């Protein structure tokens, strides 16, 4: 790999995408220029791969030099060669126990197949979730059907009772440390993933895989699940529209927000410059 090859890791929501979940023309142009110059562009998202791929295809980020980190680092995919290059999952039986405990507490929780979100009941949470991710969902009859395979992650959601979901995290998920870890990706979403998985881990893995020095890495993000990514990359660029406290973990805060080409600002300053 050429020594001057740089690699951009970009979050989707609140970073690459504006509030309408679109890529602004300015962001699109900057990313195209980075790829044409021979740099790498990696979508790094908590979303499932199926959702990340929708955005990648729309943005033309499925060509050589493009990659997708999905499920907060649990799955890494090469869309040009159409193959998963890394994956780490939760044990299915353990995931079922977490799922059941969440249901017993009256919390929404969901798992995933390769193409759909899987839930045990139709509710406001799943309706809102699929609206934002453009995914299909299916109501399944039992826990076995909710886990057709070992999952990359499960997601608990509560839009109106953060303390209730924090209690679930504390009492059910935290005691599983060493096998499972959890963190919030926004005020409502509790991400539950295998131990050791994070966007920061994925940056290190990708740099080794592509033989790009970590010093040539730039990460752009706005949320709590981006913190390890921002701290791991050589340059952690935080969107000025980031959630409170996230900027403390970066090296640079953008002048422009996600609705006004904030990512393009990062690309021009740290990738193309």
Which H/E pattern describes the elements? EHEHEEEHEEHEHEHEEHEHEEH
In whole angstroms, the N-to-C terminal distance is: 19 Å
Give the overall shape, derived from the CA principal axes.
Answer: globular
Beta-strand level of the residues, as a percent range? 15-25%
Helix content: 25-40%
**Rg (C-alpha, Å):** 18 Å
Provide the spatial order of strands within the biggest beta sheet.
5-4-3-2-1-12-13-14
Average predicted local confidence, pLDDT = 96
Helix- and strand-based class?
Answer: alpha/beta
Largest sheet: 8 strands, mixed
Number of strands: 14
Number of helices: 9
Uncertain spans? none
Question: Which helices and strands occur, and which strands form pairs?
Answer:
Elements: E1 7-10, H1 25-36, E2 40-44, H2 49-58, E3 66-70, E4 75-78, E5 83-87, H3 92-104, E6 108-112, E7 116-119, H4 124-133, E8 136-139, H5 143-146, E9 154-157, H6 162-173, E10 180-184, E11 189-194, H7 199-210, E12 217-221, H8 227-232, E13 235-238, E14 252-253, H9 262-271
Parallel strand pairs: 1-2, 1-12, 2-3, 7-8, 12-13, 13-14
Antiparallel strand pairs: 3-4, 4-5, 6-7, 6-9, 9-11, 10-11
Task: Considering the chains and any ligands shown, give keywords for the structure.
273 residues, alpha/beta
């Amino acid at each position: 790999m050429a020594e001057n090859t740089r690699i951009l890791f970009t979050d989707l929501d609140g970073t690459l995408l504006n509030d309408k979940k679109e890529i602004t023309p300015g962001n699109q142009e900057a990313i195209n220029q980075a790829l044409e110059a021979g740099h790498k562009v990696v979508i790094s998202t908590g979303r499932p791969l199926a959702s990340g791929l929708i955005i990648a295809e729309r943005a033309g980020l499925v060509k050589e030099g493009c990659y997708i980190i999905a499920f907060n680092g649990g799955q890494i995919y090469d869309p040009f060669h159409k193959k998963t290059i890394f994956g780490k999952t939760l044990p299915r039986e353990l995931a079922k126990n977490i799922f059941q405990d969440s249901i017993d507490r009256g919390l929404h929780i969901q798992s995933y197949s390769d193409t759909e979100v899987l839930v045990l009941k139709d509710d406001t949470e799943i309706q809102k979730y699929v609206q934002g991710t453009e995914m299909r969902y299916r109501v399944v009859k039992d826990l076995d059907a909710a886990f057709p395979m070992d999952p990359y992650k499960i997601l608990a959601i509560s839009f109106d009772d953060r303390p209730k979901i924090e209690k679930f995290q504390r009492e059910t998920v935290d005691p599983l440390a060493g096998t499972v870890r959890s963190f919030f990706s926004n005020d409502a979403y509790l991400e539950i993933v295998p131990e050791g998985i994070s966007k920061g881990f994925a940056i290190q893995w990708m740099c080794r895989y592509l033989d790009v020095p970590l010093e040539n890495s730039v990460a752009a993000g706005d949320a709590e699940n981006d913190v390890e990514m921002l701290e791991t990359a050589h340059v952690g660029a935080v969107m000025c529209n980031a959630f409170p406290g996230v900027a403390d973990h970066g090296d640079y805060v953008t002048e422009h927000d996600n609705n006004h080409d904030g990512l393009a600002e990062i690309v021009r300053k740290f990738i193309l410059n």
